Amino acid sequence: MPKQRRNPIGKQLRNIKRAILDIRRSVARVAVLARKAERRALRPAAGGRKLTLTPKRRATLKLQGAYMGYMRQLKAAQKARVKALKARKGYDAAIKLGKRLAGK
Question: Is the dihedral of CA 4, 8, 10, 15 positive or negative?
């Protein structure tokens, strides 16, 4: 009895069927992810407390930002000088020294 050959068309049809099933599974996963994203988008944002800055606090933060901006530009020894001055005389004096040392 001769050996029976597999039909190449049948093999291709099985491959196509398998590919279609893979695509269906992928589409189903994407649909689930899309529904989750939609629910997340429709959910109200986590309502944290509203931060209110007083003019005094805003001015302090502005000074601190200027101080930090100059400190980033300085070498370690210069930073130590500026920190020591800030401890003695406050932000204004430290910012002036930091600005001078940074070459601005």
Answer: positive
3 state SS for 52-100:
CCCHHHHHHHHHHHHHHHHHCCCCHHHHHHHHHHHHHHCHHHHHHHHHH
C-beta neighbour count of 67 within 10 angstroms: 20
Q: Distance between CA 23 and CA 13 in Å, rounded? A: 15
Give the CB-side neighbour count of residue 34, counting CA atoms within 13 A. 6
Distance CA 95, CA 83 (A): 10
pTM over cut 0.70:
no
- Contacts with 61 (C-beta within 8 Å, 6 or more apart), sequence order: 53
Please tell me the distance from the alpha carbon of residue 82 to that of residue 66, in angstroms, as a whole number: 13
In this predicted model, what pLDDT tens digit does every residue of 73-101 receive, in sequence order? 999 999 999 999 999 999 999 999 999 99
